[in-house]
Amino acid sequence: MKIAKYWIPYKDKKLKCTLCRHNCLVYPGQAGICQVRVNLDGTLYSLVYAKPVSIHVDPIEKKPLFHFLPGANALSLATVGCNFKCANCQNYEISQYKYEGVNVVPGEFVSPEKVVELAIKTGSEVIAYTYTEPTIFWEYVIDIARLAKEKGIKNILVTNGYISEEALKDGKGIIDAANIDFKSMRKDFYSKVVKARLDKFLDSLIFYKKIVPWIEVTTLIIPGLNDSEEELRDIARFIVRELGAHTPWHISRFFPQYKLTYLPPTSKKTITTAVEIGYEEGLRFVYAGNIPGSPYETTFCPVCHTPLIKRLGYEIVENNIDKGRCPACGEKIDGVWEISEKLEF
């Protein structure tokens, strides 16, 4: 255990956690919504500091990040716990950990120094905080990221975007990129399916743009829940307006899992329609996920439509980007293409 950083003491040993947008009021002996930040006698502790339950090397395309160091290896790690309760969670075995009064969680102790050593040993240019929700092990993220920066290793988040401004500010200058789940543009979806608030998510998403240099967003399209053309247009318009038309939008296909096994997989036609909507609303780069071999895995020049990066699943088949530009027409292609590239805030 480690004393958590983000909290405010209240009377009678109650406290308010300020790490994420839930702002949980936590009573003594209880945990917040994430189930891994616990009030012990009036002090908030993180149960998951340096206790990863999963560490793997993944292609960065799996995150997915398509415009940030394509082809890079990402040392990916997670602890148990999450501050969302998504009914469709694909990693629910570890994300939906339940605190039952035992202050020891699954996972092996791995120090921040050891994580950076593993990244170097495995030839990983990037460390990815992913699988569950990096917000809930934020102190661990920050300590690793600072050490990684000293070694020239980039840091990326795969996140639901529900972090507080106070906490995210500590990532400025050390978090290089993020893929943020943009689950819906409807209040009832956030309240019923993920147990959070849409307005707080949107506020956080806008704030992310001020702190993290490169952002991509992903929307998992779930049949009957967030797949209307009207809602997809609303998402695309918000991305263009608040994050910029250069922001890559990944449209991902749903498959039945966890609490939504009664729903069918998303049709390929719906995915294709969503991609077309993204382009119609002015986005420069829109991708389809969970459909191997789809033409929408390819990065095209938004001006002359020359194929620039061809992918097959998570593999780069061909990369024709020349110093960040289209070799055919010279158009600047938004993204971070070289490990030495300086990221501007």
Largest beta-sheet characterization: 8 strands, mixed
Number of β-strand runs: 17
What would you give as the CATH superfamily of the largest domain?
Answer: Aldolase class I
CATH fold-level topology of the largest domain: TIM Barrel
Give the low-pLDDT segments: none
Structural domain count: 4
Strand-pairing-aware structural class:
alpha/beta
Number of helices: 8
Strand line-up in the sheet with most strands: 7-8-9-10-11-12-13-14
By CATH, the architecture of the largest domain is named: Alpha-Beta Barrel
Q: What's the CATH first level of the largest domain?
A: Alpha Beta
Q: End-to-end span in angstroms?
A: 34 Å
Which properties best describe this structure?
single chain, 345 residues, alpha/beta, TIM Barrel, 4 domains, eight-stranded mixed sheet, three-stranded antiparallel sheet, globular
